[in-house]
Amino acid sequence: MGKNWMGKEKYREIRPGRKPFKALYIKIALFALGRAMQSASNLDKNIKKEVETWPEGFTAMFKVLPRGPYISWMKEKGNTLVYKGESITEDEADLVIYFKNMENAFLVFSAQAGTAQAFAEHRMSLKGDLAQAMSLTRCLNIVQTYLYPDIIAKMVFKRVPHIPLPKKLFYRLIIIVLGIPLGM
Amino acid sequence: MLLLPSYYEFHNPVRIISGKKALDNLPSELESLGAKRPLVITDKGVSNAGLIKFIIDAFKESEMTIAAIFDEVPPDSSIKVVNTLAGIFTANRCDSIVAVGGGSVIDTAKGVNIVVTEKSDDLMKFIGAEMLKKPMKPLIVIPTTSGTGSEVTCVAVISDTDRDVKMAFSSNHLMPKVAVLDPRMTLTLPPHITAATAMDAMTHAVESYIGLQKNPFSDIHAMAAIRMIAENIITVVKDGKNEQARLAMANASCAAGAAFSNSMVGVVHSMGHALGGVCHIPHGVAMSIFLPYGLEYNMHKVGDAIGEILLPLAGSEIYAATPVAERPEKTVAVIRELRDELYNQAKLPRTLKEANVSPDKFEKIAQMAINDGSAIFNPEELEYEDAIGVLKKAYE
């Protein structure tokens, strides 16, 4: 086989590279979202109402295709939503929301696109029941409202979920100080 | 100025054959897809109207055998009939599917295609968006209503009555290979169904033009569809035998299908699906009821786009005579006038009260509407209280 001008072999195969920093960012963002969701589900009545409609043992997952990272939640006894990280497999999950690739996940987790926009642009796909996906999406919108500054929330959401300011600030503090780092 | 979305996708691989004697190309189309033994799927309404004769006649003088004709598809596509048909497909050594009918027949055919391709009778594994990965058997669709646009969509809904769930599938592999639009196939539709299905097509076009993922290609299809519907809807309701108008409506429905399959639909469909689920109101009727209220609901977000619809809807003279700021309201007003005319001609209900929907069902409808997948693609967020508000406005 001949050589190109750099002295390397021409027509050689190119194995897929990696994006370690983006992967790490998304892994951290997913972890924060997972823990924040667990924490918010104990605080916010609208999330509680949504979780009530899910069957006990219901598992939901977010996964970046094709290799991850991914996170999952499970609804356990007493209407509690528990963050399960990577301890549930894709086949076990009742509902899986996939990001088609890492860049699409990065758009959502860097608050450049909302969930609705990402779905509309086919950046995400879905395994499972659409009605439950809608319910999970509403929960995510509320959790992201606690996590994002208002100016970003207004850019990302069609309509920012209404939460009174004192409550929003208080719950935000609990989620960020206790929920994400300590899983409370 | 036309604003390009920052990102979009447009997909329509369906070959469209439209016009006089279009059906007679069926054998050659199947042949070009490598098919030899098609399974024809239809329902009693189609076979009792004598439309299957046109299919059988199309095969005369060809060298192709119809492997089987099944005309017992129920009004709601169910997993039982899908599995029965998959058995017939295998037993009769079929290699392709021809669906002749409306939405439920076409959805059933898509469901059969999933079962025979995936070789699994448990469709639960494949529900969701883009979960089907294998290329399917050739599917040719011959619509007998001008409304659903299912001949160019990648979606199928199959109910599992034992588990009481509606399974929704969305995959590019579900796209038919060919859509045949032959005016003979819709000539016998009665005025009421003609009106309801036409308003379904109109809603597809209108909602796709204002949807979250509208793009230049979906816009072109939507605008062409609105114009064809506006120019022909009253003619087909008054004079069902008018072949030219029937063909225009079949084309409009198909174009609207291509538009919404790409840019998606919104609140009118969320409310309509829920109304159908709770009160069994036919889909086209529900679309006609909610369309003006859905536009008003989104007016503050997409008023400009709603105003642009006035051109294909009312024609250039009315469009030019209406100041830009008044065009969105005028669009809604023209749609209301159209509904009044359809009420006079075909008794198509304009309000929930006229459709005998009781307000005590509103809570259930609203809850179901916010869980409908189309809500996520609506320009404005749809929450429970919003859905209740739309229902109250649409009541009388």
Cα gyration radius of chain A (Å) = 19 Å
Report the portion of residues of chain A in β strands. 5-15%
Helix content range of chain A: 40-55%
The CATH architecture of chain A can be named as 2-Layer Sandwich
Distance between the termini of chain A: 60 Å
Query: Helix share of residues of chain B?
Result: 40-55%
DSSP E strands of chain B, number:
9
The CATH top-level class label of chain A: Alpha Beta
Query: What's the arrangement of strands in the largest beta sheet of chain A?
Result: 3-2-1-4-5
Order of helices and strands of chain B: EHEHHEHEHEEEEEHHHHHHHHHH
Assembly type: heterodimer
CATH superfamily of the largest domain in chain B: Dehydroquinate synthase-like - alpha domain
- Biggest beta sheet attributes of chain A: 5 strands, mixed
CATH architecture of the largest domain in chain B: Up-down Bundle
Low-confidence stretches of chain B: none
Structure write-up:
- The complex is a heterodimer of chains A (184) and B (396).
- The longest helix of chain A has 24 residues, at 20-43.
- Chain A has one domain (20-182): Nonspecific Lipid-transfer Protein, Chain A (2-Layer Sandwich).
- Chain A has 184 residues and is an alpha+beta fold.
- Helix content of chain A is 48%, strand content 14%.
- Chain A is globular, with a radius of gyration of 19 Å.
- In chain A, α1 (20-43) crosses α3.
- The termini of chain A are far apart.
- Chain B is of the alpha/beta class.
- Chain B folds into two domains: 15-184, Rossmann fold, CATH 3.40.50; 191-395, Dehydroquinate synthase-like, alpha domain (Up-down Bundle), CATH 1.20.1090.
- In chain B, α7 packs antiparallel against α8 (243-263), α9 (267-279) packs antiparallel against α10 (283-308) and α10 (283-308) runs antiparallel to α13 (327-346).
- The longest helix of chain B has 26 residues, at 283-308.
- Chain B is globular, with a radius of gyration of 20 Å.
- The mean pLDDT of chain B is 94.
- At the A-B interface, α4, β5 and α5 of A face β5 of B.
